[in-house]
Every structure is written in C-alpha cells, then in structure tokens.
Amino acid sequence: MDTSVTIIGLVITLLIAIPLTLVFRSNVLNKAKVKQIKQQYSQNNLYNFETSETQNKKILSLDKENKSFLFIDFSYKEEAVYFVDLKNILLCNLAVTTQSKLGTVATVKIELVHKDTMQKELIPIYNIDNHMLDFNCLYEDHRLAEKWVAAINDCISK
Question: pTM of the predicted model, to two decimals?
C-alpha cells in the first residue's frame, strides 16, 4: 500500500516538475537573448534602454536621453529586431490596416517618418497572419502601440 502511494506521488511530482522546469529554462534563455540584443544595439554603452515593456512576446525599449527606440519581436519563428535613432525622426503615427468589408484589423504598425528623406519606416506590432484572429492579442497590441507612439512622440518633441 505504501509503495503504490509513493509511486503515485512521484509520478504527480514529475508531472508538475517537468513543465515548470521547461518554463523556467525558456524564460532564462529569453532573458539572456534580450540582454544580448540590447547590448548589441547599445553601441558600446552609448544607448541605455531603461524604459522597457514586455507583452505578447514583444519587447519595446526606449532611451529617452539619447533618443533611440528598440523593438524585439519573438512571435515569429525567428526574432525580429528594429532599432531606430529617434534623432532622425520627424514624427510617429499609428498605422492600422483593415481587411474585408467587415473592418477586421489586419495589421497594427508604428509608422516613423524620417526628417531628411520623408521616408516612412513601419514597425509591425500586430499581424493577423501570426495570431489567427486572436482578439485579445489584437486589443493588447493595439493599446501597447498607442502607448508607445505617445512615448516616442514625447521623446521626439524634447
């Protein structure tokens, strides 16, 4: 009787411990990867991305003092990294595109306009192809983009 209870207890412990170990390991690897990317784009500690936010496998970082923006997206098969020197940016807008007559949001992008060339640079925050009509993710990413467009515009205006 005691042996069977011990075996069941060990099996339950393993069923709980293995997924937790995998989650913690993945979290440590992602933190190390983010730290490495931030260090790579800091350009010998010129940029210090002190303002940072993480949501839905996306990391947005801003250096208000040196005016730079870093966006890291892990929601794709390979991470996408965008670095923008905000000293060369005239304005920042939110670009939302819809598809079909129903008005389904297809993409949410941060649009940055360069001072010299007036060329637009688009940073994709949400893409319907990656999230398969996940409305919670759309809502969160849209709010996140609005918040960061305001932060970038505030940084540009100073």
Answer: 0.76
